[in-house]
Automatic annotation (TrEMBL):
It comes from Thermocatellispora tengchongensis. Pfam families: Acyl-CoA_dh_1, Acyl-CoA_dh_N. Belongs to the acyl-CoA dehydrogenase family. Gene3D superfamilies: Acyl-CoA dehydrogenase/oxidase, N-terminal domain, Butyryl-CoA Dehydrogenase, subunit A, domain 2, Butyryl-CoA Dehydrogenase, subunit A, domain 3. The keyword Flavoprotein applies. This is Acyl-CoA dehydrogenase. Residues 7-118 form the Acyl-CoA dehydrogenase/oxidase N-terminal domain.
Length: 374
């Protein structure tokens, strides 16, 4: 177990940080907010694609970098630390990686080059109203004689549904067997209603009424979808941990700088014992998130059993992350609530990260079941 980044991973981190520091400035983020409507920073996405950061883990023959999961999570952490308005996690980890891993040669050739080049987007619809798990969706899939399928059901909190070329949709056939379908969100029978989330990134409620999926857009046939979800969901959860690490680390650094400069009673407030102790606790929590996140990511990269490690990492990211980001906002005082000041972005993103794919209580329950089942 070695969490030291190798030369390639360090290069990815430095390149991502350099571009994001220059392009995802607080002023630029405020400008995007003021414009209203579209959250997505297309210009920055194109620059990252040109630098090779968008297609990092995608196959080289599809225009990607052919790197591993570690490199992708390094980039995801950097994006989260910058609070940039780009969907690296959603488009690449949730949408692109499953196609790269499980897609046919035709599906990969059709969908991945545009994704790697930053021209198109992919996404995934993993959640349903009522909390139906992705492995046992309420959304139904009905076959046609020509090999196509029609999907009926509702998916919630779907990212990029307004612009994705395809959305990965788990759906079950009449026998309850789950398949994974590449749905065109613009096809007949699909309606998308915008949902405003706490992080500020829009999501969509997708309602499917006999929405057609062609035979060549079946990613995993019913009965085979569980294998893909068993592979994807731990990686999706670990990716959330990388996002939370980026948010916490950035907020902690911002807070340390603030309490070192903000003076009260003739001295920096960081010299007061209560402030110093709280930021020290936040540092310890952030390091706990860092160590558990990279342990889980590393084990997934190595193909080692990682179910317990992913649950532990997500518990730390959710539970400790909430403490870190609450401390960051609190120690900033009134300026922490100023929307022109960037620390609130990490706090709001952290709330999304806290509960995405299971909050702290859900992770403890899952971890307990794993331990009991040994």
């Amino acid at each position: 177990m070695d969490f030291t980044f190798d030369e390639q991973q360090l290069a990815v981190r430095e390149l991502a940080r350099e571009i994001l520091a220059d392009r995802a400035t607080p002023e630029r983020l405020n400008e995007l907010d003021a414009a209203g409507g579209d959250w997505f920073d297309e210009k920055l996405w194109a620059e990252l694609a040109e630098a090779g950061l968008i297609g990092l883990p995608l196959p080289e023959d599809a225009g990607g970098g052919g790197t591993g999961f570690m490199e992708l999570c390094v980039a995801i952490e950097a994006v989260a630390a910058s609070a940039a308005h780009i969907p690296l996690y959603e488009a690449i980890l949730l949408g692109g990686l499953p196609v790269a891993r499980f897609g046919t040669a035709e599906q990969q050739a059709r969908l991945l080059p545009g994704l790697a080049a930053g021209r198109t987007l992919l996404s995934a619809a993993l959640a349903e109203p009522g909390g139906h798990p992705a492995h046992a969706p309420a959304t139904t899939a009905s076959p046609a004689a020509d090999g196509s399928w029609t999907l009926t059901g509702v998916k919630t909190l779907v990212p990029l549904a307004d612009r994705a070329e395809r959305v990965l949709v788990p759906a079950a056939d009449a026998s309850g067997r789950t398949g994974i379908f590449l749905l065109d969100p613009n096809t007949a029978g699909v309606s998308a209603e915008r949902q405003d989330t706490i992080s500020g990134q829009p999501a969509y409620l997708l309602t499917l009424r006999d929405a057609a999926v062609a035979a060549d857009d079946v990613l995993r046939a019913p009965g085979e979808g569980g294998e893909l979800l068993d592979w994807l969901l731990p990686r999706a959860t670990a990716g959330v941990c990388a996002r939370q690490l980026g948010a916490c680390d950035a907020a902690l650094r911002m807070t340390a700088g603030y309490v070192s400069q903000r003076e009260q009673f003739g001295r920096p407030i960081g010299t007061f014992q209560a402030v110093a102790q709280r930021i020290a606790d936040a540092y310890i929590d952030t390091e706990g998130i860092r160590l558990t996140a990279w342990q889980a990511i590393w084990r997934l990269e190595q193909g080692l059993p990682a179910a317990e490690e992913v649950a532990i990492a997500k518990w730390w990211a959710a539970d400790a992350g909430a403490r870190v980001l609450d401390a960051a906002l609190h120690l900033h005082g009134g300026i922490g609530a100023d929307l022109d000041y960037p620390v609130h972005r990490h706090f709001l993103a952290g709330k999304w990260n806290e509960f995405a794919l299971g909050g702290p209580a859900a992770q403890l329950e899952h971890l307990g079941a794993l331990i009991a089942g040994r």
